[in-house]
Design brief:
By secondary structure, this protein is an alpha/beta fold. The protein contains 9 helices and 17 strands. It has helices at 169-175, 203-219, 221-224, 238-248, 278-288, 301-304, 313-318, 348-360, 384-409; strands spanning 11-12, 27-32, 38-43, 51-53, 57-64, 69-78, 82-84, 95-99, 104-113, 120-129, 136-143, 149-155, 182-186, 226-236, 289-295, 335-340, 365-370. The strands form 4 sheets. Strands 10-11-13-12-14-15 form a 6-stranded mixed sheet, with helices on both faces. Helix 1 crosses helix 9 (384-409) and helix 2 (203-219) packs across helix 4 (238-248). The longest helix is centred in the C-terminal third of the chain and has 26 residues, at 384-409.
């Protein structure tokens, strides 16, 4: 929503399924977090001790109380499910329901400065493919007056098994501030069966999803104000790996299958425009993807082996960006990296080696070490702690990332 006028409508939160969390526990603890510049009302009211009967449906209503502020998102923070968003995700109307099937350590809303929602439009939940149970979607952030702008495609993190495109909306807002870029934030299948697919999803399929999203965005470039020959990719953590893969593995696009024939590991994008062949898709992507900013990710085969779901060594090499660096004589793909000094999720040494390997191939590569930052500082969630981290580290280093992209697209 782009107005301080709040429409009250029902948005049903993604409730934790009772059958999946069956427990002998009769009650759970619920804590309401009241936001600055707003008020959260829960019905039935939460008792002072926070104890609520299991299965209780909480009706949550958010009111913005101060002028100049706007509703961003509702949320609940569960002890076993992490941050959960309403079904309709960001910019939803601020009335939703939560079923209490676990301890909820934070139930509240994000209220942000109204100015953060002006100067652009958002096209949400564009479905680009449905290869399994979950529709694959992306959101597009389009600055006012956009016309043939470069597009930055953001790929979210979450260990390849959680989160959606919503978690990157803070970064998207930063990258469109000066109206030089359109931003598309994409979702993809999760590894394993987390999406509800009977057959476990594998890493190569996630990469194919990302390629499919980029092709869909390019197909609709005129609608979004995008120059389809000027694409950058970025992402953090698992999305760092996926964005580096999208940048490096284009030469592997084909219709030969991934491991179907011994020694053949090719990627067929999950979505391709009507009449497009794998050869056409490869050519289009080679001409479009010009830069990458893979943040605090895993790039080498040694560290990707444990996420390969039993893939043979040759297949793991095929999903490793560090094993598929294009020579500068083939094509340029400059890459920008950030890593916090307090990051305990990924190690510095393999990232430094990847940067060195890029430079040895003649590619431009820049690694920025962020003093005092831990993992996932580009994430945006409605809780105040995550927003504070984003303000401290995400905002300035989004600007530095854009500086890097400007050197590619606006030199």
């Amino acid at each position: 929503m782009k107005s301080s006028t709040i429409r009250i409508a029902t948005v049903v939160a993604s409730a934790m399924a009772a059958c999946a969390v069956a427990s002998a526990q009769d009650t759970f603890t619920v804590r309401v977090q009241q936001p600055a510049h707003g008020k959260v009302t829960v019905t039935p009211a939460i008792p002072e001790n926070g104890v609520v009967k299991a299965g209780t449906v909480l009706n949550v209503q958010v009111e913005v109380t101060d002028a100049g502020w706007a509703f961003d998102s509702g949320y609940y923070l569960s002890t076993d499910k992490g941050m959960s968003y309403p079904t309709n995700k960001e910019f939803t109307d601020p009335e939703f329901q939560v079923t209490v099937n676990n301890n909820i350590m934070g139930l509240g809303a994000s209220i942000i400065e109204e100015s953060m929602l002006y100067g652009y439009k958002t096209i949400q939940d564009v479905v680009y493919a449905k290869p399994g149970v979950k529709p694959l979607k992306y959101d597009v952030f389009i600055p006012d007056g956009a016309k043939k702008l470069p597009c930055v495609v953001i790929i979210h993190g979450g260990g390849w098994t959680s989160n959606t495109e919503d978690i990157m909306r803070g970064l998207a807002r930063e990258l469109i501030k000066d109206k030089k870029y359109v931003v598309a934030s994409i979702d993809y299948r999760w590894l394993g069966n987390g999406d509800g697919d009977q057959k476990a999803n594998t890493m190569n399929q996630l990469i194919e999803d990302c390629y499919g999203a980029v092709l869909h965005i390019m197909e609709h470039a005129a609608e979004y104000g995008v120059d389809p020959t000027k694409i950058a990719v970025t992402g953090d953590s698992a999305g760092g790996h996926l964005s580096a893969s999208v940048a490096n593995l284009i030469e592997r696009i084909g219709d030969g299958g991934f491991g179907v024939t011994p020694g053949v590991y090719e990627y067929l994008p999950t979505y391709m425009p009507k009449g497009m062949t794998a050869k056409d898709a490869k050519k289009k992507l080679l001409g479009a993807i010009k830069a990458a900013a893979p943040s605090y990710g895993v790039f080498d085969a040694d560290n990707l082996t444990r996420f390969g779901n039993g893939l043979p060594a040759e297949a793991v090499q095929a999903i490793a960006p560090d094993s598929n660096i294009p020579a500068i004589s083939t094509r340029a793909i400059p890459q920008y990296f950030v890593l916090g000094t307090l990051d305990r999720t990924v190690r510095r040494e393999p990232i430094e080696k990847y940067v060195d390997h890029l430079k040895a191939a003649g590619q431009k590569a820049e690694l920025v070490i962020v003093e005092g930052a831990s993992h996932a500082f580009f994430d945006w969630k409605p809780d105040q702690r995550t927003k504070n981290t984003f303000a401290k580290f995400g905002v300035p280093f989004a600007a530095d990332m854009q500086r890097f992209f400007n050197e590619v697209f606006y030199k």
